[in-house]
Design goal:
Elements: E1 3-8, H1 22-28, E2 33-36, H2 44-50, E3 55-58, E4 78-79, E5 81-86, E6 89-94, H3 108-115, E7 123-125, E8 133-137, E9 140-144, E10 160-167, E11 170-179, E12 182-185, H4 193-196
Parallel strand pairs: 1-2, 2-3, 3-4, 6-7, 7-9
Antiparallel strand pairs: 1-10, 5-6, 8-9, 10-11, 11-12
Length: 197
């Protein structure tokens, strides 16, 4: 049975804005799961997302008190790393992986050894950088949906979210731009809205 997973990261709520854009909830309507790549910041946001679909979240530096923020409590939906078998594929979720790599220290292999010692994932969903990216490194599909609120670390504005579709050992990832009233496919070649302001 095919799965559609909504991908989101680095929401920084309520730091970026009081609540998450309603366009995110509308875009995620009908997904089977939601993966949050960390830097949530307040965990009540996961309750809101869970009204749409079950949530798995990475624990980011923002939840651990980074930048002087309050340390967030333990929550069964939040771990430093998740490794789930879905549709015959192993899907990892953690806050940061070095994509692009910066050898010799910042390599995907080193992060896999640290966060996924039990086995190499087929797919890793992450966040942290606020920069949307889809790349395959050493056979691992790496997906970062960017940030819906602080795209590329610019001021609060519409950013990006993503989707991961899994079906019988096949995976397809996409990134979407939030726009007034909805989403549209991310234009990888165009000038993004945050650079046109």
């Amino acid at each position: 049975m095919a799965l559609k997973i909504g991908l989101i990261s680095d929401t920084h709520i309520p730091e970026a804005r009081k609540t998450l854009w309603p366009e995110v909830y509308a875009a995620f309507a009908g997904v089977d799961l939601i993966f949050h790549g960390g830097d949530i910041h307040e965990l009540w946001l996961l309750d809101e997302l869970e009204r749409v679909a079950p949530v798995y979240s990475a624990r980011g530096n923002g939840e651990d008190g980074g930048g002087g923020r309050p340390v967030q409590p333990e929550d069964c939906r939040v771990r430093y790393a998740w490794l789930l078998e879905l549709e015959g594929l192993w899907v990892g979720l953690t806050h940061y992986v070095p994509v692009p790599e910066r050898p010799p220290d910042f390599t995907l292999a080193r992060w896999i050894e640290r966060f996924f010692p039990e086995r190499k994932p087929d797919i890793i969903v992450s966040g942290d950088t606020h920069v949307e990216r889809i790349a395959t490194i050493d056979g691992v599909l790496c997906v970062n949906p960017g940030s819906p609120t602080y795209p590329h670390n610019y001021d609060t504005q519409f950013g990006t979210i993503g989707f991961l579709e899994l079906d019988d050992r096949k995976a397809d990832a996409s990134v979407w731009q939030l726009v007034e009233g909805g989403i549209e496919p991310h234009d990888w070649e165009g000038i993004p809205p945050w650079k046109r302001r």
